[in-house]
Queue: 2 jobs
Job 1
Amino acid sequence: MDAYLSKANNAVPIVVIDYGNRNHILGGYSSSSMVSKHQREHQTQEPSRVSSDCTVVEETSNLESAILGRRVESFDALRAVFEALFYENFGWIKPEEEEEEEKNKKNVFIVEPILASRRERERVCQMLFEEFRVSGYAAENAAVCALAGVGRLNGISVDVGAETVDCATVSDGKIVESTCRRIEGGGERCCEKALSGTTVREGKEIYAEMEKWERMIVNRHLARVRWNADDDGKNGGGEGMESYQLPDGNKISVETKDAFALGDALYCCSSNTDDDANSKIVEAIQSAVENSFRHAQAGHFFSHGKENAFECIVAHGTESSVKGLRERLGEDIRTKIAPESAKVNVVASAPDYLHEKSMEHLSWTGGAVLGKVTWNLNQQISKSAYEEWGPNVANRSRNSF
């Protein structure tokens, strides 16, 4: 693969887009050396919203109406978001104004959410070819991209996002469709928990007036996930305070016991965790793995037995950085799902050569890697292929079990 990547560095620029979040969209070139000089943030000065390799576009009115629950709700709104990304951030020239030599330099790789429908896939493909006049297009599932981001072809992807938690297994670089699971929850459950009762002790009024995505940033710094369901958090300083200082100098503080309550809301995917100590995430992983064994084909990764099934669990996504989440996930899988002889490994961080925040945007990072390989091997959908097959060509190129 290294040889492919080195050859691809001189290829035409490939824009990689991950649109599977309601409150932001990720876009950037597949090579970090090609990052747009137009890179900037929209409607926020929070530096953590942008990684070193991609742009986070904040288009509140369009984006929130475009994406809901990681599904495209309005293609008109999505088109407006793409226009901002292509023409403002990456300096694309509009089709009616571009010169002849510019027509073959528009290539797009889409990181699509799990459970994306055939209709959604076709409409996005059609929009890119017919309205933005791209010369090449490719797409891959977010779970496959996440595994590629840490250099793996087999494993379990757990994408902890703002609205949902998506779980799926990947075998030999292909998504196992029957294992895709989506849980309503994610970072929004932390917000609901923090706004209920008296959880926030200092800066409560400031917190209440924040935009939802701003509260999620604060929650990532304040929330703690306990080691197991019986842990009261005292061993980790459960009787103190957790604080986060905002860029303007104001401080948001919660008691440590309430920080663990926020973590419970995220991990259990429920703002009411008093009687719900079980994690829906673990239940989804168990269901996904069982389906992997049931549908495994001879010779594929999940046909080798449960002992190897848990050796690569990748917890990623914007809310995955909450302290203790990966440790709790590994402990619950080890004690509740995996056989005693199984090796359980929850990937704790991105490879050293990636940006420190890459785990939050791992699907995009993996898409950037796969984008290089796809064009280098000439496996993208060309304009001529689209003209021959129409939008359905996006489904003909699906890479899944």
Job 2
Amino acid sequence: VPLVVVRGPLGVCQLLETTLLALINYPSLVATNAARMIVAATGRFTHFSSEDNMQHMEHASKKTPRCIEFGLRRAQGPDGGFSASKYSAVGGFDATSNVQAGKILGVPIAGTHAHAFVQAHSSLSDAQSFTLRDSHGKDVSLLERALHYRSQFQWDSTNDGELAAFLAYAVSFPDSFLCLIDTYDTLRSGLRNFIVVSLVLHDLGHMPRGIRLDSGDLSYLSLTVHRIFLQFATDHPDRSFFKDLDIVASNDINEEVLHFLNKQGHAITVFGIGTNLVTCQAQPALGCVYKLVEIDSKPRMKMSQDFEKVLIPGRKVAYRLFGEKG
């Protein structure tokens, strides 16, 4: 299938061969891989194993899942990482964790803190000095109020260091508070610590964003977290924001995993995809070639014992097909 037709002096056209192939192969590969993952993430063309699973997906979350590129650490060097961010956006990804690429390309930047950030906090004393101002301009101790809520819900066994880390993150990012909750115990510590800190932020006029899952059974955990959020919003009508929180999932996600999650049912609203996006796990290289098919208005043909390498002679026409949606 012809993608590009090059016409001109033979010498000049041959000098362009390597440059054109370099500018077409990897970008086309990544953009296509990204587009396929978007299709898989949004559940288009997914065959649900049962009507119950489809209904479960529809009721679990009304949001169409978004995709964020997380691939800089696994890309083919810094230049490859930048290219991957760029062409993932071309393929339909909503944002990138690559800060430099986001700023240069104008692509939204998104991400969360690391497990190391949580591990670096070991006790509640790490959060004693954290304050934010309320609507009256008064400094409020975040730790004091968070401990009040933790005691109110009888969640005193949550990890103290994790709670301190979440409070530290809340001080820095009160309006984009999205926590990685699987450092210790996802449901009995991480989720509960996120809830109590979210309540403190909401008291002070800030709106939390959600949580991130990076391990475990993503289907089960996302559905459980979503159910707890909905129940909390139902039990506390003045905290309706819990119904709209994002549930971000990462952890070696690829196209096959996305289809599997759709069939199994999940409540994930954002997928963070890195390694398998930028390295194109399913097909690490695209085999576009650059061949002479006509010279001086005379067709040229390459013969080969490999049938797939035999050229169809003569000038080609590159064209695109457009449907109702483009």
